[in-house]
Amino acid sequence: MWLCTACLTIPPVDPASLIFGIKSRWTDFVARHPRFVMRLPALQEQMDQVVSRRFETDQPAQRAIFILGRQAAEDFLEVLLNVGNGYGIAGLKLLRPLFERVVTMMQLIKHPDQVDDFLAYHHVHIRKTIRHMMAGGVDPTRYLTKDQLDSIEAEYQAVKARFVEVVCKTCGTTRDSMSWTKTDLATMARNVGLGPSYLGLCYYPTLQLHTTVSAMATRMEDTPEGFAFNPGAQTKEADVALVGAHTCLAVALEQHIQYFGLSVPAQWVRELYHGCWPDSEAG
User: Is 191 exposed, middle or buried, given 0-12, 13-18 or 19+ CB atoms closer than 10 A?
Assistant: First the structure.
């Protein structure tokens, strides 16, 4: 059936009546996780005390670690919003960067001498952005002046020798490193004590994040008429993502308390976590 757009009428919408959520799924979420929901106000209080605070320092390492921890708390809330509405796959997709953020934060706490490389790699990223613009057929001068482009190139040239990897040992061809560190994430996770969590909190979520057969298979189901896309709530994945995200958050909060010498009891974080997930071995 074809509809003439001139004949369609759209009733006015009261913005105050809009609710971005699925009530039935939130109700189901609360029923599945009463211990967590009951302790959610206390968890919010923990985040407020540890990372939602004013912090002044002229130390680059402290700034980086503070912001990474604050971002981890926000990542957790993003996961919560999705899984509470039954979007478990979305929760897993967000879990992957949350895990990397916490691992990176712990790596910098353990090796403060690496903070400079972490920050300097920003110039490589910015220069890569210009290259990606050109690869997509976009002229960078549409958005940046010549002086800005020259500055980006100069800042890149000043640090590029620190981020080079050899592509071919025979001919000596090199390229920019894919990361600020030569240590892969799995190894870094082991180095900071999160190795056992790597598979569930990083690798499997990565398969859902990227265009993979695994991600496709997760959403397929067999029906009498053939296979179909399953549009329903992904409660199993939602529960995995929630516990994983809370694990990452608890680690980040404990690390902040210890690193910054806060008066917040670190044991409170652990007790609250196990109060929510008494059967979990993580945390």
Answer: middle
